[in-house]
């Protein structure tokens, strides 16, 4: 256990200094969200069967290798996805809905449903995202979750830190979309 923590700490320090490269996608070591500098916590490749779907990166106010700590961190946060293939709005919506459903009770999903529907409308307005597009989910404490595509905000922010935490659980929850990706986002090599 101590060895794993030491390896994760070295990996996190390396990410912060120079960024990362995953599947040919170069990711910066830091970014700015809500006027605050965030550091790259981890990055990895999302695959499904043998298809490469996207490269995900997690940016936080301070690094953490523990999912529960990440989910509790206050302040701005970003999850970004660099698409490695074209995706339709319906594919994006289904993936997000499935990820939320897999990591929440039916009662929790019901409570989140109005904002899930708002997110679906934002994604529907995007229509499709092409290979190379960058989709960001930024948590802004005073506003909520802002969806972005290639640096442009899409739709109004979705209110509530609980909603952003629900989205983060897609990747960092007990039943993540990809267990290897979860480890990578938490800084494991």
Can you describe this structure?
With 189 residues, this protein is an alpha+beta fold. The chain has helices spanning 2-18, 67-72, 89-102, 106-126, 161-172, 179-185; strands spanning 20-22, 25-27, 30-33, 36-48, 51-60, 77-83, 87-88, 128-129, 134-140, 144-149, 152-158. β3 and β4 form a beta hairpin. The radius of gyration is 15 Å and the shape is globular. The protein starts with a helix and ends with a helix.
List key phrases describing it:
189 residues, 41% helix, Chalcone isomerase, disordered N terminus, alpha+beta
Distance between the termini: 15 Å
Percent helix, as a range, is: 40-55%
| Count of structural domains | 1
Structural class: alpha+beta
**Biggest sheet, strands in spatial order?**
3-4-5-6-9-10-11
Low-confidence stretches: 1-16
Q: Number of DSSP helices?
A: 6
CATH overall fold name: Chalcone isomerase
| Structural shape | globular
- The quaternary organization reads as single chain
Task: Give the secondary structure arrangement, pairings included.
Blueprint: H1 2-18, E1 20-22, E2 25-27, E3 30-33, E4 36-48, E5 51-60, H2 67-72, E6 77-83, E7 87-88, H3 89-102, H4 106-126, E8 128-129, E9 134-140, E10 144-149, E11 152-158, H5 161-172, H6 179-185
Antiparallel strand pairs: 1-2, 3-4, 4-5, 5-6, 6-9, 7-8, 9-10, 10-11
């Amino acid at each position: 256990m101590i060895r794993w923590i030491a390896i994760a700490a070295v990996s996190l320090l390396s990410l912060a200094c120079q960024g990362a490269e995953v599947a040919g996608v170069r990711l910066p070591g830091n970014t700015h969200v809500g006027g605050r500098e965030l550091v790259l916590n981890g990055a990895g490749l999302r695959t499904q069967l043998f298809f490469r779907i996207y490269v995900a990166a997690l940016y936080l106010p301070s690094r953490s290798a523990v999912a529960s700590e990440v989910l509790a961190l206050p302040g701005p946060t970003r999850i970004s996805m660099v698409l490695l293939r074209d995706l339709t709005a319906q594919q994006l919506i289904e993936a997000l809905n499935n990820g939320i459903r897999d990591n929440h009770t039916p009662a929790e999903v019901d409570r989140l449903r109005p904002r899930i529907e708002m997110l679906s409308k934002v994604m529907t307005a995007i229509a499709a995202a092409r290979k190379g597009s960058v989709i960001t989910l930024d948590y802004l404490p005073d506003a909520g979750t802002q969806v972005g595509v290639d640096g442009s905000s899409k739709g109004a922010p979705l209110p509530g830190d609980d909603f952003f935490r629900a989205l983060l659980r897609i990747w960092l929850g007990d039943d993540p979309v990809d267990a290897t990706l979860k480890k990578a986002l938490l800084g494991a090599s």
